[in-house]
Design brief:
Layout: E1 3-6, H1 7-19, E2 24-29, E3 32-33, H2 36-47, E4 51-57, H3 63-70, E5 75-80, E6 87-89, E7 93-97, E8 101-102, H4 103-108, E9 112-117, H5 122-138, E10 140-144, H6 149-163, H7 176-183, H8 195-206, H9 211-218, H10 222-232
Parallel strand pairs: 2-4, 3-8, 4-5
Antiparallel strand pairs: 1-9, 2-6, 5-10, 6-7, 7-9
Length: about 230
């Protein structure tokens, strides 16, 4: 039977859901700045083989938090700008709540939520899982540390193909010092896009390769990849 949760109850239940996850774990939070204990629990989960799906929305994540999350094992990070829902679930329990995964929310806000049990609340739990899966399908995969031989193979193959594309001219209107600085880490930064590169971006997206991996394959800045994807989708 569903259980009502206060702010503190919601936070404690989320931590327990992460700690007790087996096989898979799904987290959805519009805004993200997790407490250190949540990061530790997520690392523990990833290291014991739990595959973590983490979807956030509204705006780009804090760079430090994004760095911390993308270094966790067995983590898939998704972004959906329209996301406002917050839910957290493993194979046995789910929390649907107003609480974002923000340390400040627990300290400063009055939140509430509901705890569902996969057995006692089977129909509600099943419907929630379906909606969560629909949200993930609509989101963009930004980064993945989940081992996938097919994607590793795809990356190696496309790196070779990308290296064979002739470098076009520099983009217009970009200061030379900005170009030189960016190319220390991303050798193809600020080069004009080619049809061949556009085709590779679309192919990699269709094969499920994350944006950050596409950036590494094409040797372009992650922000440039994001902008190009939006343009290709127009």
């Amino acid at each position: 039977m569903a259980t009502f949760l206060t702010t503190t109850d919601s936070s404690a239940s989320i931590e327990r859901i992460i700690r007790e996850a087996e096989g898979s774990l799904t987290l959805m939070s519009a805004f993200v700045y997790p407490r250190i204990v949540h990061l530790h629990r997520l690392r523990d989960a990833g290291e014991r083989g739990v595959q973590i799906t983490f979807t956030f929305g509204k705006q780009p994540m804090d760079k430090g938090v994004f760095r911390d999350l993308r270094e966790l094992p067995n983590m898939r990070l998704y972004f959906l700008r329209e996301l406002h829902a917050k839910c957290y679930f493993n194979q046995r329990e789910a929390v649907i709540t107003s609480l974002n995964l923000l340390g400040g929310s627990e300290r400063n806000n009055r939140e509430m939520g509901v705890l569902l049990n996969a057995t006692a609340d089977a129909e509600a739990y099943r419907t929630m899982c379906q909606e969560a899966q629909s949200i993930v399908r609509a989101a963009d995969l930004l980064h993945s540390t989940v081992p996938d031989p097919e994607l590793v193979k795809a990356g190696a193959e496309v790196k070779r193909r990308a290296a064979e594309i002739d470098a076009p001219l520099d983009a217009e209107g970009v200061p030379e010092n900005a170009i030189l600085k960016a190319r220390k880490e991303h050798p193809r930064a600020y080069l004009r896009w080619t049809r061949e590169e556009d085709a590779l971006v679309i192919e990699l997206l269709n094969r499920g390769v994350a944006r950050l991996a596409i950036s590494e394959v094409l040797q372009r800045q992650p922000s440039a990849i994001a902008i190009r994807i939006e343009k290709l989708r127009e």
